[in-house]
Write a structure and sequence with these properties.
Layout: E1 3-5, E2 10-18, H1 25-35, E3 45-48, E4 54-67, E5 70-78, H2 86-93, E6 98-104, H3 110-126, E7 136-141, H4 151-158, E8 165-167, H5 176-190
Parallel strand pairs: 2-5, 2-6, 6-7, 7-8
Antiparallel strand pairs: 1-2, 3-4, 4-5
The chain binds guanosine-5'-triphosphate and magnesium ion.
Guanosine-5'-triphosphate (GTP) binds at residues 19, 21-27, 52-54, 78, 80-82, 141-142, 144, 169-171.
């Protein structure tokens, strides 16, 4: 649940970018960091291997200005997508106020995307949460892939809860801010 510091007049919300390995989660944060106004973002912290795979998590603080007299700060995290790091994903998901599920549209990654989504549901359930109540946004990334799975199929297989969804090419920034705006709105609406 969001951390509300009444004395400081601040609300801190945690957004977790979740999805299969190599799907574009870190690319989302990189784009936000380089294109959001400088006053609104802090340092992007990424902990990666020499081959750019996220090893533990990425972290980016983002200042959204003031809502109802409170300064709203979002803490954007990514999980490491490689199957090996499930325990790290459990840790990073803990205390999330909202989740962006970054699906990899490439046909060759369809199975990995479905498995990642099942894992997300399972981990949230174990933490006493559910995708029907947790603010959730889908991002269908890598739409530039020549073999991209059609969006209606991704919708049918993943988005059972009717969550907002966006197509994206995270490397060029397409869809990155619409996704972020949607999850922010859902979280603030819930607060
Ligand atoms: N063509 C294309 N490449 C992309 C897109 N998004 C990300 N990539 C590339 O895919 C690779 C993986 O992207 P990352 O953002 O590191 O993926 P990740 O989900 O953080 O991966 P892990 O940290 O291993 O879980 C990188 O080489 C990116 O440049 C996209 O929309 N289109
Ligand atoms: Mg990453």
């Amino acid at each position: 649940m969001a951390l509300i510091n009444v004395a400081a007049g601040e609300v801190h919300c945690k957004i977790v970018y979740y999805g299969p390995g190599f799907g574009g989660k870190t690319s989302n944060l990189t784009h936000v960091h380089s294109h959001a106004p400088a006053f609104a973002t802090g340092e992007l912290v990424t902990i990666a291997t020499e081959t750019e795979r996220t090893l533990f998590f990425d972290f980016l603080p983002l200042d959204l200005g003031t809502v109802e007299g409170y300064r709203v700060r979002f803490h954007l995290f990514t999980v490491p997508g490689q199957p090996l790091y499930e325990r790290t994903r459990v840790t990073v998901l803990n205390g999330a106020d909202g989740v962006v599920f970054v699906a990899d549209s490439q046909r060759s990654r369809f199975k990995a995307t479905l498995q990642s989504f099942q894992e997300l549901s399972r981990i949230l359930a174990a933490q006493g949460k559910s995708l029907t109540t947790m603010p959730l946004v889908f991002q269908y990334n890598k739409r530039d892939a020549p073999d991209a799975v059609p969006v209606p199929i991704l919708e049918a297989r993943l988005n059972h809860v009717g969550a907002p969804s966006f197509t994206a090419v995270a490397t060029t920034g397409v869809g990155v801010f619409p996704t972020l705006r949607a999850i922010s709105k859902l979280i603030i609406g819930k607060l």
